Amino acid sequence: MARKRKKHDHEDHVDESWLIPYADLLTLLLALFIVLFASSSIDAAKYEQMAKSFNVVFTGGTGVMDQSSMKSTEETEQSDQTKKSAEEEEEAQAKARDQAVLTKVKQQVDSFISNKKLGSKLETKLTDEGLLITIEDSIFFDSGRAVIRPQDVPLAKEISKLLVINPARDIVISGHTDNVPIRNSEFESNWYLSAIRAVNFLNILLENSNLDQENFSTKGFGEFKPIASNDTAEGRSKNRRVEVLILPIEKKAK
Would residue 60 be called left, alpha or beta, if left means φ above 0 and alpha means ψ between -120 and 50 degrees? Predict the structure, then answer.
């Protein structure tokens, strides 16, 4: 009976030591599948986070996955920096081309002013905002009036030809006055007078079919944007003006 019982005891005892390497193998396979899935993702940040987690679990520190992730991050940063530099260079080249166009337009307007002997009435200046053409109001308007004199309409139409630019850009027409209060019943204020003058001048310009209304806007500033002192007759004469601002391509009229 003792011998039989000994045999029975031997049959009941099963060696389970093989389960430990089997479990390790399954864990490693699971880790491999997760790593392969993470490698296929374009989200570098998630991959790096996952890599750090596995390295802590399996190695207790930095491993190959961290190095691969660092390399991927560096390559991404280098690619972004290269792209940014290329965009900045392209933007600088576009600004340079646009500045060259505005410079050419300025030269054309300056030549027109010289030929017409209008040097004391018109002037041009390249500013940070664009090409500014300043026109003294006495060229087109009688004192206190907003309608362009019929004999001066042809001059306004000639100016319109100078504004045909390729590619087209936004152009702002603004009216300005001195600080002497308006003395007729037609206008409530200098501000109103300056605004109507800008609109009337624009209407003459837009008779040129080569100009697109979409690119134009008007402003009236009254006496609030002086370029000279209103204490002298000469200063007040300079302040009574119409301005044509040709904006660079990247800027829009506000």
Answer: left
